[in-house]
Every structure is written in C-alpha cells, then in structure tokens.
Amino acid sequence: MSGIYIHIPFCKKACHYCNFHFSTQTQYIDEFTSALLVEIELQQKYLSGKIETLYFGGGTPSLLSKQAIQSIYNKLKDNFDFAQNIEFTIEANPDDLTAQKAADWLSIGINRLSIGVQSFQAQSLAWMNRAHTTTQAHQSIKNAKAAGFSNISTDLIYGTPHLNDQDLSADLEILLNYGIPHISCYALTVEEKTALHTMIQKKTMEEIDTTQQARQFNLIVDTLEHAGWEHYEISNFSKPNQRSQHNSNYWNGIAYLGLGPAAHSFNKHSRQWNLANNQLYFQSIKNKTIPFEMEHLSTTTQFNEYMMISLRQMEGFSFEKIINEFGAVYETHTKKIAAHFVQEGKLIETSFGYALSKEAKFFADGIASDFFWLEA
Ligand code: SF4
Predict the structure, then answer these.
(1) What residue ranges line ligand 1, CB within 6 angstroms?
(2) Contacts of 228 by beta carbon, 8 Å cutoff, 6+ apart
(3) What pLDDT score was predicted for residue 162?
C-alpha cells in the first residue's frame, strides 16, 4: 500500500508565520497543472502496490478549479493502481470553501476535507495575516457539512500572542459543537525567512511565550481527551477510528510519492524532494526532467527518524521493531536511554511498547533527540 501527495504551490496571500513553499503568483496555476500532469507520467514507476490515500496539500489546493482537480485525478488513475475506497483529502482555506466548491469536490470523489481554520478569533486571524474572516471560518464548516462531507478536519494554531486561554477554549467548543471528527493543533513556531521572524528580529513583534504554549497545549489535550477523543499524534486529535489515514501511513513508514514543487517522496530506502521553485519546475518538466535531490537513508538515519516519529505518536516505540529493523545494538542503546526517562516518569509502558507520558508530550521532539544515534 502507498500514498500520493500533491503539492499545490500557490496562496492568495502570505500568512506571517508560514515557511511552506508557495507563490502568490496565481496566474501560473494553469501552467502548473499542465506540468503536474507530465510529472505524474514521469513518476508512474515510483510506487508499487495499490494507492490507498491521495492528499492535495499546499499551499492552497482549494484555489484549483474543479476541472484542474478532475484532470489531475484522472491522470493519476491512468498511471497508478488505486484501491477501491481510497481516502481522498483536499486542504481548503475557509475563504474558498463555498457550497459550490464543496459539491464539486464531492462529485469528483474527494471524501475528506482539511480546513485551514486556524482560529475563530478575529484578532488572531488578523495577527496571522490569514485571508479569511471569522464568519468565513464558520461558513466553511457549514458548507462542507451541508454538501455531505462528514470526514472533516480543521487546523488550529495556538500560542499566538493575542490568543488567551478563554479564546482557545471557545474555539475548541465551537469545533466540538460542529461535530467534526478530527482536529490538528499546531503551536506557533517562528521559522526563518518568514515575516514573523523578521518582525521579531526588528522587535516590532513580541517573542513567542513558550510557557503560554505549553499551558495551551495541555488545555487542548485535556479538553479533547475529556470529550473522548484520541490524542494519537502530538499535533493530531480524532474521535475513535477517525484518524487521518494518509498521515498515519506516513508516520508508520508506508511509501509515498510527492508531486509538485517542494513535494517529498519516500520509498523506504531513500527520500527525495522536488526543488522548491515553481519556474524551475516548469522549465525542467518541459524537458521531461524532474528537478529533485535525494538522500539514501542509512540505518542510523532510519532509526533516528523512527524514534522521532514514534515518540510523537500515542503508541510510542517498540523494542521488537527496533531489533527487527535496526538490530540488537540499537535495542541496547534505546534501553539504556529509556530507563532514565522511565525513572523520571516521562516514558510509560503501552501495549505496543513505550510512549511519552502526558506531562512529557509537549517536549517530544527534544526527548526524541536524546535517543538519536550519533554517527561518528
Ligand atoms: S494559506 Fe497555508 S500555505 Fe498559504 S501562506 Fe497561509 S499557512 Fe502558508
């Protein structure tokens, strides 16, 4: 089984915090779509096995016309072996998610929406420089539900300067009341080469308050767990059996192909990524060449990635898997470090192996790095 990710590298405007690859030059969308159709043919041999999940991410995939999405999907079906009932997700921004678009997407076969709500608070949306309003955030969910979508996820961003705990609680309550089954919650991070980074450097914006972020993370976990949701990955919460299949496969080491500028692909032995440059992509594809770089994954790299990804998940890591996939020496190494974290109450035993305790989860990435095998 495998997955396909399509990166749509266009947005209407730049959110202050964003370091994803996108361009606001939306006049190139048609040229991009034509190039993507060629790349699909060029990459038809990358995956073996049935395609179980298809994910349009970005950027802003909801900017694409119905015809463009349909032509991409048709081309994919002509070149890959799709399973019967795939999970087919599109990321949508609230300002694009009209009743008509929702109906169009359903008619194409899209069965899951990931809506970039981020916040229902007008002040936070303005601070982030989002293209949508509070009213549009609400209306987008209503339109999706009215069209017939039930498998809906929304993104929330917490830890922004104007978002107090009451606002965040109100946002969570709104989402719970809409009855959607999945929420992804991201702590605001300051990435280089973003407007937010520049503003903080110039001291026109305050620094991010990590104490607030940790507190709000716990508020989210408590609220959603109390509502009976699973906190199945550090940033992801769902009702039982409503996890994102595409992302879960990615975290569980299933092969995937990424298409479009900046998209990443993984085939269990190597990882490759298309260069993040739209014009270079168009030119290269005209010459039937994909502009990409590749990294062969050593055992150590794969082990480190496994520790990073598994410690972010509810099930945690398994010693059995470590022995089978990486060898006894990695098991000994992991056991030694794990003992220390168990003693501190940061690691707990699960039916699968060992996972982070609730108190330690906010620090998952730092703890995972303590398990890394450092190559000499
Ligand atoms: S809409 Fe999404 S991808 Fe586009 S700038 Fe905003 S956060 Fe980044």
Answers:
(1) 11, 14-15, 18, 20, 22, 58-60, 93, 116
(2) 239, 240
(3) 87
Distance 273 CA to ligand 1 centre (A): 19
> What's the pLDDT score for residue 9?
98
Measured in degrees and rounded to the nearest 5, phi and psi for residue 10 equal -140, 145
Give pairs for 330-337: CB < 8 Å, separation 24+: 330/299, 330/303, 330/373, 333/371, 333/373, 334/307, 334/371, 337/370, 337/371
CB distance 276 to 300 below 8 Å: no
CA of 207 relative to ligand 1 center, distance in Å: 21
Give 22 Cα–ligand 1 centroid separation in angstroms: 8
Query: Which residues of the chain fall below pLDDT 50?
Result: none
What is the position in ligand 1's atom list of the atom closest to the CA of 59? 3
pLDDT in tens, 188-209: 999 999 999 999 999 999 999 9
CA of 10 to the centre of ligand 1 (A): 9
Pocket test for ligand 1, best of 7, 8, 15 (most atoms within 8 A of CB): 15
pLDDT value at position 170? Answer: 98
